[in-house]
Amino acid sequence: MGLPEPPPLGASALPSGTFDGQTVLVTGGGTGIGKAIATEFARLGANIAILSRKPDHLDAGVAAIEAVGAPVVAIGCDIRDPDSIVAAYDAITEKFALPTVLINNAAANFPVPTEDMSPNAWRTVIDITLNGTFFMTREFARRHMREQSPGSVVNIGASYAWTGGPGFAHSAAAKAGVKNMVETLSVEWGPYGIQINGLVPGLFPHEDMTADILSNLDRTNEKDACQPAMRVGRLREMGWAATFLASPYASFISGCTLVVDGANWQRRFMTNAPVVTIRDQMGRGPFEG
């Protein structure tokens, strides 16, 4: 039987107007989970700001937000570059107001056996996922400290921040840093009214996944049967979780990482299955150096 399906798309987990007049900034908000989260904030009355390096992603995010009738601004920004971030915050503040909510969703990720990983691949994932999240969060906090105003940050994480992630050593290391940032900065910045939490998705298949990750998923014939919930996640469920964590109803929750995956990351076997190398799982031949 598994866990029940969620309410339909368009249902709200919070009262209508919860974010009226507020500005919500979502990095990577034009695709996948980021777009779903931005849409749920828009349904609750927020002005939405979307950041991305890719014009087609910005266009897709704008179309999704306009479809629910919310104000939106899309800004090209490289979150690896602190100057680009400053310019983006200035533009958002001029258009709407200083964001009261920051969703750090932008990340880089692709599966690769570690022995095949180039130095540039390692640096790129760390730079976007960890450094970019830090630069975005620091600028958010500094502006709220100057204005003496409260704010809420939600960092999108990954469960392999706890467990390690074979095939994703670069992303797992970066996401471990993102999780630690939640725990560290929530204590440092709580006295200034800045709340920081993490949000970890399980398997939420969507059309914006990269081709290499989709190809790995395609090797699983029946994804629902591989989950304790007997189903995969629905994107709107991530949106509801994010809006709750950033809402006044969760204002005493800080330094917490919420996992939304139907308990999949807690799954264990009573007996060990045969070991299959990451190379074999990815359909790669022997390492040849």
Automatic annotation (TrEMBL):
It is an enzyme of class 1 (oxidoreductase). One of its GO terms (biological process) is fatty acid biosynthetic process. The keyword Lipid metabolism applies. It is found in: Peroxisome. GO terms for molecular function: trans-2-enoyl-CoA reductase (NADPH) activity. Interacts with PEX5, probably required to target it into peroxisomes. This is Peroxisomal trans-2-enoyl-CoA reductase. It comes from freshwater metagenome.
